[in-house]
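Re: the request from the purification team.
They wanted to know what the chain is likely to look like in 3D before they choose a buffer screen. I agreed to run a prediction and write the result into the notebook, where they can find it.
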Amino acid sequence: MNFKECNNTLCDFEKPLVHQKCLTMQKLEEDYPGDTGWQALVALYEEDYLDDQARQLAAVMNEHLDMAVILYGKRGLDEGLWWLEQQVPALDDLKPMECLHDPILIRRLRTVLMRMP
């Protein structure tokens, strides 16, 4: 692949090592099972975890209530807030908060949340 053909908006294709990491990162969002699977998981978590604390987490996450309810269910409010500001190896060292504004990165974050124990 020619570096200039890369479609990843975060890629610095002028630096081959960064671009190689970009090619690695693209695989995670390719594993996203789709919106139907995502919505099924959200519905399952909403039954037990959709409350004011999940909404508080969503307010920090640019109103992504779907992701907030899953994060809250898996990690709780305090740990969820902490995790949002950490560089996450599974996100290729991006912070989860950095993934909330780009559709590709949202799929990557959703995949990580779905895999999170």
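For the purification team: The helical segments are 16-30, 35-49, 52-60, 65-84, 103-115.
Please add any questions underneath this entry.
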